[in-house]
Specification:
Layout: E1 2-13, H1 19-24, E2 26-36, H2 39-44, H3 53-65, H4 72-86, E3 90-100, E4 110-118
Antiparallel strand pairs: 1-2, 2-3, 3-4
Helix pairs in contact: 3-4
Amino acid sequence: MHTVKLINCEFYAHHGVMKEEHRVGGRYSVDAEMKLDFEKAALTDDLNETVDYETVYKLMREVIVSQKVYLIEALSRQIAQTILDRFPIVQSVITRVRKINPPVGGVCDYAEVEYQAFR
């Protein structure tokens, strides 16, 4: 197995438990770490034999901005499942979703969840 990663993809969206978060929105950072066999792509230089990370980015953006949820746990799961559904070559995926400057009553760079899904 080989790994393809997208790291710190940033989006502005409206998620959170508090009503104010849904109204005002906030910044989110997302990672996707995908395990797959891309040996054929490496040998042939053929994008069709691997995962297209531009498409992965667009899928992540669609999940993040098209809805409002309470929990980043839900976002992380939905992103992972969407990647697995779209790319049969991907055998497993780890997603990390970070809420930048979460409302915790003090200084906090981000809250982060990690979700792992397997085919």
